[in-house]
Amino acid sequence: SQKIEQNSEALNIQEGKTATLTCNYTNYSPAYLQWYRQDPGRGPVFLLLIRENEKEKRKERLKVTFDTTLKQSLFHITASQPADSATYLCALEGDNFNKFYFGSGTKLNVKP
Amino acid sequence: GAGVSQSPSNKVTEKGKDVELRCDPISGHTALYWYRQSLGQGLEFLIYFQGNSAPDKSGLPSDRFSAERTGGSVSTLTIQRTQQEDSAVYLCASSLVGEGFETQYFGPGTRLLVL
User: Which residues on A lie below 8 Å from B30 (Cβ)?
Assistant: First the structure.
């Protein structure tokens, strides 16, 4: 199995700044890692996937890094906006490809 | 196009009653997942269906929980003799095996409250 740690404390930042969220895992390194966004009362929405042989992945204002030595992924939102306020979850594929392990998420609050 | 839909959106039941939760995946998606999310917690894997293969039931917390998928499409999660600790949001997701297999598309969830 896999234990995933995300900061349970909310991250409060000012609009325009870069938000950085952390996802740490404890056991085997997965073939890939995903980040999802979840708004209150809704299901998670897929944002980005990064594979173990990729150091960095970008999509518009989003950037994800994956360090298999540190067993850590960082998720960055540059030029953050109040609309980016949500809970961000990281997910790792399980050891039998059927399961996905999700972190408990970090809530991001972007203040205008 | 239509996304993943779930029904009911909210369900309040009394302890000891049975409940059925429904999931309609995206048309053509062969993989279907059920998760449970308790307040402030991450998603807990429950069960996985892929095509005609035997489902992976390893995440079901007890034998009170069961799920089926008929015709490779609609899925029903059944909780028998509900307990208060079953109160949570039950999320369904589907994905397309092959291209984009790893991307899961989630429904809005069913909020279950057991009194």
Answer: none
Query: Is B102 in Cβ contact with A93 (below 8 Å)?
Result: yes
Closest CA–CA distance from residue A98 to any residue of chain B (Å): 7
Spatial CB neighbours of B71, under 8 Å, sequence gap ≥ 6: none
Interval A61-88: pLDDT, tens: 999 999 989 999 999 999 999 999 999 9
B39 CB within 8 Å of a chain A CB: no
Structure confidence by residue, pLDDT tens digits, B51-110: 888 888 989 999 999 999 988 799 999 999 999 999 999 999 998 876 555 789 999 999
**Residue whose C-alpha is closest to residue A96's, from A5, A47, A28, A34:** A28
